[in-house]
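Handoff note, outgoing to incoming analyst
You'll be picking up this chain. Sequence as last confirmed:
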Amino acid sequence: MMGTNNMMKLLCTLLLFVFSLYAQDTIAILPLGSIDTSVFNNVLPLISKEYINAKIVLLHRAEMPSFAYYKPRNRYRAEILLSFLDTVHCEATKIVGLTDLDISTTKGEYVDWGIFGYGSIDGKSCVCSIYRLKNKGTQEEFNSRLRKLITHELGHTYGLDHCAWPLCVMADYKGTMASLDRTGYHFCAQCKKKYKLKN
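Most recent structure output, in case you need it:
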């Protein structure tokens, strides 16, 4: 017959297991600057199709940090924006900064390379910009691109690097809209496996 202490240990173990089944990551979306939040109302519910263990919450907007501004190109440096996002106090596992202003980073020989988004590998934060997406194509195309972009940059925060399969959502966009349009909405089998191993 099982003793009281062993029964209690077993019960606690079972409770922790059940809790883990329902435990969720929280992905916080932070609008930066004057971006119109209605532009991603139709997109955010779709992000959870890939991040099924996460709930998505929308934070109150914040001003773009002036110290991230790169005056020579009228852009904001993405890596500095990530440092800023890491300091935002909220009960979230991950945080996504969304802006309609241009962002950039250093890439190879290019000191200031304009980008769609930027995410820290295995970190907490990523930033996405609609600057290169807006006014280019239909509303449906915009929604499709933004959905892929947010899913992709969040993937980096879960430890996923760029994928060699061009249809995977984690494929490298190489700074072109054509590459972004070519990718799918979902992780390939290999990336999905890596994501699950991280969670």
